[in-house]
């Protein structure tokens, strides 16, 4: 397994000065110049801002996607399985009505198939997102393990497990996160994202935060399942702490990176 960290100015400085070590930078897809800059320090791969189930894939700049994928030798094209509330007016966010759930599955499957036609379905990995429940923007159905498994089975894509997304959903909806993750389509695992869960200044739980004791426990449990060959080995494990832009720069602390990157790097490498 390779080990990556979100690209940030802070991470770039620390890697360039040999204060932390990673195999790759994980870069967003919105700035070609940023990617070129990052590649001067370390190899990079792209995390694409694609959603399946929202009709976004009808408006993709395919030439740019292929350009970035080739430029960085990114092996897979990731896509988030989504069911935004505004797309299903009149439906309860917690709906268990089979016809509603089938509509959601069909929308995601149709989009993933479009992506598969463009890049090859063997190169597509689907990521689990967050559901926080009533009053929020994501239907609970799209984070259900049986729904995610159905989508993987229908399309033939692989799975990107974000354990922080799983943890936020579990905390919001009141279920056991390890049991929840265990019921996901883990046999199709290709990529793993790890990061911390903490409250922001407004008291809202966020991911891409420093790791806490609970986060380390979940990461250790996850990596141990890989080490014992219970789960397939993903091609990369990414620490999704820090980043670029207004949404992430306030949570890109060099001290956190210096403390937590080496610890997770060691955990990843010893789980192989």
From TrEMBL:
It comes from the Bacteria. This is DUF692 family multinuclear iron-containing protein. InterPro entries: MbnB/TglH/ChrH. It comes from Piscibacillus salipiscarius. Gene3D superfamilies: Divalent-metal-dependent TIM barrel enzymes.
């Amino acid at each position: 397994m390779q080990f990556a960290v979100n690209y940030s100015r802070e991470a770039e400085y620390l890697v360039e000065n040999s204060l932390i070590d990673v195999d790759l930078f994980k870069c967003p897809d919105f700035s070609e110049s940023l990617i070129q800059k990052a590649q001067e320090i370390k190899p990079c791969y792209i995390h694409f801002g694609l959603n399946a189930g929202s009709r976004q894939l009808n408006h993709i700049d395919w030439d740019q996607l292929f350009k970035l994928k080739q430029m960085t030798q990114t092996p897979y094209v990731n896509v988030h399985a989504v069911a935004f509330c505004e797309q299903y007016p009149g439906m309860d966010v917690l709906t268990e009505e089979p016809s509603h759930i089938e509509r959601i599955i069909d929308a995601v499957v149709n989009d993933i198939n479009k992506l598969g036609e463009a890049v090859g379905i063997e190169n597509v990995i689907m990521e689990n997102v967050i559901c926080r429940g009533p009053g929020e923007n994501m239907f609970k159905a799209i984070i259900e393990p049986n729904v995610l498994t159905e989508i993987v089975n229908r399309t033939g894509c692989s799975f990107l497990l974000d354990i922080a997304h799983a943890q936020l959903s579990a905390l919001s909806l009141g279920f056991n996160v390890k049991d929840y993750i265990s019921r996901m389509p883990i046999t199709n695992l290709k990529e793993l994202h790890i990061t911390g869960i903490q409250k922001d200044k407004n008291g809202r739980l966020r991911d891409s935060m420093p790791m806490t004791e609970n986060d380390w426990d979940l990461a250790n449990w996850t990596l141990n399942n890989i080490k014992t060959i219970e789960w397939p080995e993903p091609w990369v494990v990414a620490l999704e702490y820090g980043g670029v832009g207004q949404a992430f720069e306030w949570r890109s602390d060099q001290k956190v990176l210096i403390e937590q990157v080496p610890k997770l790097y060691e955990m990843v490498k010893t789980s192989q």
